[in-house]
Predict the structure.
Amino acid sequence: MNVTDIPLEERIIFALDVADPRKAIALVDRLSDHVRFFKVGMQLFFSGGWSVVEHIVRKGCKVMLDLKLYDIPATVKLAVEQFADRGISLTTVHGYSPVVEAALEADTGIQILAVTVLTSFGKEQVSELQYQGTVEDLVLQRARTVLSVGCHGIVCSAMEAPLLRQQLGQEFVMVTPGIRPAGADLNDQQRVATPGRAIADGSDYLVIGRPIRDAKDPEACISAIQREIGQALA
């Protein structure tokens, strides 16, 4: 993937992590002159997310549908088929190869992203899985496996980005949540990075929600982050 082909206004995927579709639509209307990519996650989708998806698409913006699908392969394939022809650019499944293969078999033209390890996970959570390696080892293992079956890209912490680029190359999309501008509250995230660091280390897209949404001036916050991204790319 040639990361220079991604417009600056699409580098931030703004996370519409609100429960009310009306509030989500208002955020899209307010921010779509500055950000051209929006994430619709489970909370919003289950409260009426198709209306939000349709609104984003009508605005000429892109959609990441982040439902992190995980079920028997046949069910995953049928679910992903329902996303066809709705203007969705990216969608997520868990990083388990049969699930990824089923999502790919739906053949909707939507890029499939495999979630490796959630950014809220740390050493304690990984040890509860009785996995003997580090968080980084687990992310690399899962990423290598899903990319080997044709997955278009992965979702991971920016902390693992340098390792994955070094080990797995450039020919896949890397989307990183857990992005926090310097001095921002970490909230429930453990493995975080600043926007500039994430881009410099190999991330293609940065998922950012609360730091922008809760800012006194969200538009100014976006502009500052985009300047930081531009400097990292340069």
